Amino acid sequence: MRSPRTSLVAAAFLAACGAPSASAPAGGAPSASAPAGGAPSASAAASGSSSPPAAPPPAAQATAPAAAASPAPAPCGALGCLAFDTPAQAFAHALESGPRVLAVGEAHAQRGSEGIPSTTRRFTELFLPALAGRASDLIVELWAVDPRCKKEQVARVEAEQRTVTQGQAAQNQDEFLALGHAAKRLGIRPHQLTPSCQEVDAIVRAGPDAVTAMLEMIARQTAAEAKALLGREDAAGKMVIAYGGALHNDVAPRPGRERWSFGPELSAITGGKYVELDLIVREFIKESESWRALPWYPHFDREKQPDKAVLFNPAPGSYTLIFPRSS
User: Fold this and answer.
1) CA–CA distance, 216 with 185 (Å, rounded to integer)
2) Phi, psi of 81 (to 5 degrees)
3) Kindly report the CA angle at 86 between 245 and 128, in degrees rounded to 5?
4) How far is Cα 146 from Cα 195, in angstroms, rounded to an integer?
5) 17 by DSSP, 3-state: which?
6) Buried-state track 149-179, b at ≥16 Cβ within 10 A, e below 16
């Protein structure tokens, strides 16, 4: 991933949208989450000094191009629901508008789900290869802290992260780093978020509202990075991908969550050439208040068409792709 001019302290930070957490903000979508530090350094991912993960299996890479010759999807209900034979076909359909920004949101894998391929792994293996040559850059929701920041402030922020992420699967951080490595191999420049020391201090000063301050910072950082990348001459006509939690990409955030999302800002500056795509592993869906609050939830039966990829389109430029049941 791109390294800033300063060296980095690893503070891998995947924010917003793991399974519900008691310490996360209350309300709607699967709640905010942010893995704590301790993953391989984000700067190592940038330099390639750590051992890169293996390339996606050939079978997974071969899946994406098949979408062009696929049969027509079958209507499956409300909110523009369509059922596809493969996830790659559903993914291709969501991108038919040719967005300049593809904002992918996920619900992070939780402890106990390690035997089920995560959303990050599926995106890396099934979808990312199809974006080679079409996307110029990938912003991964990893936070790399400037080592000039006060150590005690960084430690306090990391402690806040741990309270939110303690229920997450241990491999989440590694899989985000693997996504960055895979993008680089495909010619897509990976980037991480690089908050300033002032922003770290602001999170500490937020006290009990530290998680909310983190969510707001991530939205600001991602929006600023995406706007800078969209303005590069060598990225003209290509897509910028933002990959992270499924609160930040909302093109129409729920009331009270407007500052958590970069969706409206990036949609505006691209003239609506923005796609919000939430990716959901079917087995991760739970009978809980936070899941029931999602607009597609009342219209989805996880036992119906288990071998199909289900794509909802609840609003223009907004999609939710639910993977088939894992084999």
Assistant:
1) 31
2) -60, 130
3) 45
4) 8
5) coil
6) beeebbeebbebbeebbebbbeebbbbbbbb
Cβ–Cβ under 8 Å, residues 313 and 276:
no
Angle at 249 between CA 122 and CA 138, to 5 degrees: 55
Planar angle of CA 135, 248, 238, nearest 5 degrees: 15
Q: Which sign, positive or negative, has the C-alpha torsion 269, 230, 312, 212?
A: negative
Residue 274: half-sphere exposure toward Cβ, Cα within 13 Å:
23
Structure tokens at 206: 């937020």
- The answer to whether residues 243 and 138 touch, using CB atoms and an 8 Å cutoff, is yes
- What is the Cα–Cα distance from 71 to 73, expressed in whole angstroms? 6
Taking each helix axis from N to C end, the angle separating 210-230 and 151-165, rounded to the nearest 10 degrees, works out to 100
Q: Any residues with CB less than 8 A from the CB of 98 and at least 6 apart, and which?
A: 273
CA dist., res. 144 & res. 7, Å (int): 9
Question: What DSSP state is assigned to residue 66?
Answer: G
Buried b (16+ CB within 10 A) or exposed e, 63-78: bbeebeeeeebeebbe
Task: Measure the CA–CA gap between 289 and 20, rounded to whole angstroms.
Answer: 9
- Please state, in angstroms and rounded to a whole number, the distance separating the CA atoms of residues 327 and 324: 9
- Prediction pTM value: 0.81
AA letter at 111 = R
Q: How many residues does the chain have?
A: 327
* pLDDT tens for the 327 residues of the chain, in order: 443 332 222 333 333 333 333 333 333 345 433 433 333 333 333 433 334 444 444 334 334 444 445 689 999 999 999 999 999 999 999 999 999 999 999 987 777 777 899 999 999 999 999 999 999 999 999 888 888 899 988 888 888 777 666 666 667 788 999 999 999 999 999 999 999 999 999 999 999 999 899 999 999 999 999 999 999 988 888 999 999 988 899 999 999 999 999 999 999 999 999 999 999 999 999 999 989 999 999 999 988 999 999 999 999 999 999 999 997
